[in-house]
Amino acid sequence: MSPTGNVSAVRGHAVSFKADPFHSDDVLVDIEDALVVSEDGLITAFGPYEETRQHVPEGVEIAHLPGSVICPGFIDTHVHYVQTGIIGAFGSQLIDWLNHYTFIEEQRFADAGHAADVARVYFDELLRNGTTTAVTFCAVYPQSVDAFFEESERRGTRMIGGKVLMDRNAPDALLDTAQSGYDDSKALIAKWHGNGRQLYAITPRFAPTSTPEQLELAGTLWQESPGTFMHTHVSENLGEIQWVHSLFPDRKGYLDVYDHYGLLGRRAVLAHGVHLTASERRRVSETETAIAHCPTSNLFLGSGLFHVHDAKDAKHPMHVGLGTDIGAGTSFSILATMNEAYKVAELLSYPMNSLKSFYLATLGGARALDLEDKIGSLEVGKEADFVVLDPAATPLLAYRSARAESTEELLFVLSIMSDDRTVAATYSGGRLVHARKES
Ligand code: GUN
Ligand code: ZN
C-alpha cells in the first residue's frame, strides 16, 4: 500500500460528493471500481479504473483494495487536542466539567515537552480515525500551539489551530491579558498561518472567559489577518447562556456578543449552537458563519440536541460540519460521531440518512470552513487527503455489510457500526500516514 516516491495510486470503490444532500438529490459520485492517483500532494487523476489507469506513471504500484470504500478524509470542525487526556471524565455539565477537569488539565501545557507528547498521541488518534483536517483548540500557552503545528508539519496534514484567549473567569495560571493574547496570537499567525498546510484560528475560548477588551482585540486581529479563522463556542448549555446574559447585559443575546465584536463571518467556526434562537440562526446564516455539530459531546455533558435539519433549512441555511469536541466528546471517530448525530436527529424526528452524514464529514465540512477548493472531495486538483474504509473490519460488520443492497445502505451501516477499526488506511497529501495493524 505504500506510495512510490511522491506518487500514489489507490484502487477501490470510491464515494465523494458533488452537491449538498440537504438541498439536492443527485449528490454522490459513486464509482464501484475507481482509481485515485496523486502526485506531489494533489489528486492528478480520479475516475473508473479502466479509464484512469493510463495516468499511473510507469513503475508506480497500484494499491488494489477490493471491497474497501475510499472516501475523502474526514474533517473534524471542533476538537481540543489539550483535552486528549480527560476524555471520559465522570459526571458534570459544562461549567462544572470545565472547572473540575479542563482547567486543571490545560495548565499542564505550559510545559512544551508535555505539549509535544500529547500532540503526538493526538495526531496518532486523528489519523487512526481517518481525520485529515481538524479545527483544533490548543491551550492558552503559545508553546502548546507550536507543539500542535510542529506535529502537523511532521505528518504533512492540513490543520487549523490556535492559542486560546482567556483573560477572566479561569485559574490565574490559565489567563492571558487582552494585550498579551493579541500579541501572542499575532506572532503565532506570522509564524504558522499559511506556512505549508497550516492555518491559524484566533481562538477566544467563549464569551464568559474573555473581557470586552479581549473580544474587541480579537475582532481587530481577525480583520488584520486575512484568511485566518475565528474559533469559539456558543450556546452549548442553558446555564452558560444565562451567565453570558449577566456578563454582557447590553447585548441582545449570546450570539450578539460575538456579532458586536466583529467575530461572525466566513471562516468563523462556532461550536455547538444547540440553543440558538430562530433569529440567531438567521444571523448565523446571513453572516456565513459555520456551526460545528458535536453530538457525542452534547450528549455526554447533557447539553441538548442540536437540530441539524433546522440549521440546514433551505430558507436560512447555515454552514454545518461535524465535530468530536474531544475531551467532552467521547470518540475521535467521525464515524462514531455520525452514529450519535443520527440518533440525535431521530429524537428530533428528522432522520438523517447516510448521504447527509458523510457529506457533513467531508465536503460539507470543507464548505463550512471555506476550504472546498482544497479538501473535502475526490477531484483532480484537490489535496490528496482520503481514507480507505473496510466494511469487513469486524466479523459483525462484515456480516451486516454483505447484506447492504446499495451504496447508501453500506455507508449507513458503516456510520452506525464503526470505530477506528473500520479505517484501514489514511492518506494525507497522497502519503500513507496511517495503516491499520492487521491482527
Ligand atoms: N466552552 C468553553 N470551553 C469549552 C470546552 O473546553 N469544551 C466545551 N465542550 N465547551 C466549552
Ligand atoms: Zn469545545
Notes on the structure:
It contains 16 helices and 16 strands. With 439 residues, it is an alpha/beta fold. The protein folds into two domains: 7-72 and 378-435, Urease, subunit C, domain 1, CATH 2.30.40.10; 74-332, Metal-dependent hydrolases (TIM Barrel, Alpha-Beta Barrel). Strands 5, 6, 7, 8, 9, 10, 11, 12 and 13 form a nine-stranded parallel β-sheet that branches. The chain has a seven-stranded mixed β-sheet with strand order 3-2-1-4-14-15-16. A hairpin with a 2-residue loop joins strand 2 and strand 3 (42-48). The radius of gyration is 21 Å and the shape is globular. The mean pLDDT is 97. It binds guanine and zinc ion.
What is the correct CATH architecture of the largest domain? Alpha-Beta Barrel
**Total number of distinct structural domains:** 2
What percentage of amino acids are in beta strands? 15-25%
Structural class: alpha/beta
Largest sheet: 9 strands, parallel
Total helical segments: 16
Radius of gyration: 21 Å
Average pLDDT value?
A: 97
Low-confidence stretches: none
* First and last CA, distance: 17 Å
- Shape, please? globular
Which percent range fits the helix content?
Answer: 25-40%
Bound molecules: guanine, zinc ion
User: What is the CATH superfamily label of the largest domain?
Assistant: Metal-dependent hydrolases
CATH topology of the largest domain: TIM Barrel
